[in-house]
Recover the amino acids of this structure.
């Protein structure tokens, strides 16, 4: 558990483009509270640039007209103040995105000295950058003339755009042409830091309780350390979550010791077989606990991918709560939303009729997360190999060794698979009663554990597709 948090962050993501103007957000608060969430996270709703992307911020201190009540509200943030007040009244904390490594490209004119410049290859017709070079000298750059003929492309030294390479194919590069990269290793660092601290103070004075630090791994750790120390001077309880998806070990190491309360994890993409996920859990867990998710605003909707399988959405959410200390769920997940969230194109008209409603099950899973110590913290994981590769056997134990749980899961979405564990007590070996709490997940019971313990040494069951069993045991 993060040292400043009494309970794990259980986060509901309100996506501004889908939710619409800020007064609409207030209507969601009772629903979020009823499902047992403790936080509301909101993607950027600052005034954005020409592209219309939420993450292309043009003015940090104004609310975009899409979300403000009127022009005055865009400057005063009064509607957002009311939202924070109402959320706090319901026992919910509020988290905003902190985007510091880039701004909208059309924001450059305000502080042109703050931005990095690089040699880039532009398509003449569209003006879009297609290749970025890290070489400082133009003479060192070699352009592939066959791929980029000079009559269609030109080399220019210009404001740098953020980009990312596909680790599996370095020729696959995504360049965000609507963004401009801040240069932190510059003579103007003090100006940049003063601006960012002023914005953080502005947010904290509004009552904001935490920040998701967008693309944290793309900024040097010392910058974050400085900002986090400042934030915790203003409010010692403010939470900082580093968005680290896609970052390698060295990039995680860069953020170690900076004061982050949480990192992100990639368990959403685990096949429940390959060793990398459990290995990362152990490796990065030494830096900070993690926040997981079954889907996010960057991923396709699981209801669409699974063919409207409620049982799969239930398991994926449960697994995120089990695997990580913290968990995030985007709005619409509980109702089987199928339309992917998009930072430019989504509008309130994309809200869908309720496909199905798993809100009561989400609420029960969140209750179990609060009730069981092993689900409240990052803990230690042990992945037991099983002779049938369709079966996952995964144990999680608390840091102090006082509570553990065993998850047995049929990964196959279409077939029944037999599971035999000759001695369940060899895996759950405290010598105290074992409880099967699986049934509690699909019930509305407020009970913290079943009335009767599991007393059979040999576990045998034919697990139907996507079925899972969860055993728990405590030293007490």
């Amino acid at each position: 558990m993060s040292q400043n948090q009494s309970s794990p962050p259980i986060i509901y993501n309100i996506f501004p483009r889908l939710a619409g103007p800020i007064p609409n957000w207030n209507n969601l608060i009772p629903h979020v509270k009823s499902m047992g969430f403790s936080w509301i996270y909101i993607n950027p709703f600052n005034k954005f640039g020409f592209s219309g992307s939420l993450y292309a911020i043009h003015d940090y201190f104004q609310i975009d007209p899409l979300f403000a009540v009127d022009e005055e509200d865009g400057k005063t943030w009064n509607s957002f103040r009311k939202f924070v007040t109402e959320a706090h009244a319901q026992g919910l904390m509020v988290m905003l995105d902190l985007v510091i490594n880039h701004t909208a490209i059309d924001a450059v004119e305000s502080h042109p000295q703050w931005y990095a410049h690089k040699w880039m290859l532009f398509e003449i017709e569209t003006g879009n950058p297609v290749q970025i070079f890290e070489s400082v000298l133009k003479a060192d750059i070699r352009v592939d003339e066959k791929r980029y003929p000079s009559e269609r492309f030109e080399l220019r030294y210009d404001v740098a755009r953020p980009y990312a390479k596909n680790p599996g194919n370095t020729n696959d590069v995504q360049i965000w042409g609507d963004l401009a990269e801040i240069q932190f290793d510059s003579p103007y660092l003090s100006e940049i830091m003063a601006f960012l601290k002023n914005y953080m103070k502005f947010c904290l004075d509004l009552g904001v309780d935490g920040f998701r630090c967008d693309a944290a791994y793309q900024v040097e750790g010392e910058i974050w350390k400085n900002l986090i120390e400042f934030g915790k001077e203003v409010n010692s309880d403010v939470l900082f979550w580093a968005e680290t998806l896609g970052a390698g070990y060295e990039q995680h190491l860069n953020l170690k010791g900076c004061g982050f309360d949480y990192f992100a994890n990639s368990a959403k993409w685990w096949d429940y077989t390959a060793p990398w996920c459990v290995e990362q859990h152990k490796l990065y867990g030494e830096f900070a606990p993690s926040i997981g998710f079954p889907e996010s605003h960057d991923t396709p909707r699981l209801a669409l991918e699974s063919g409207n399988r409620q049982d799969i959405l239930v398991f994926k959410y449960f697994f995120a709560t089990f695997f990580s200390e913290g968990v995030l769920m985007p709005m619409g997940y509980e109702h089987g939303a199928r339309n992917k969230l998009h930072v430019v194109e989504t509008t309130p008209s994309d809200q869908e009729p309720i496909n199905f409603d798993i809100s009561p099950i989400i609420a029960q899973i969140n209750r179990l997360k609060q009730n069981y110590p092993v689900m409240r913290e990052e803990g230690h994981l042990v992945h037991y190999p099983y002779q049938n590769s369709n079966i996952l056997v995964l144990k999680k134990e608390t840091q102090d060794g006082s509570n553990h749980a065993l998850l047995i899961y049929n990964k196959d979405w279409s077939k029944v698979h037999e599971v035999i564990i000759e001695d369940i007590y060899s895996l759950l070996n405290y010598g105290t009663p074992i409880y099967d709490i699986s049934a509690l997940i699909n019930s509305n019971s407020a009970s913290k554990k079943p009335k009767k313990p599991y007393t059979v040494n040999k576990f045998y069951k034919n697990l139907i597709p996507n079925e899972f069993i969860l055993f728990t045991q405590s030293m007490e």
In short: The chain has a mean pLDDT of 94.
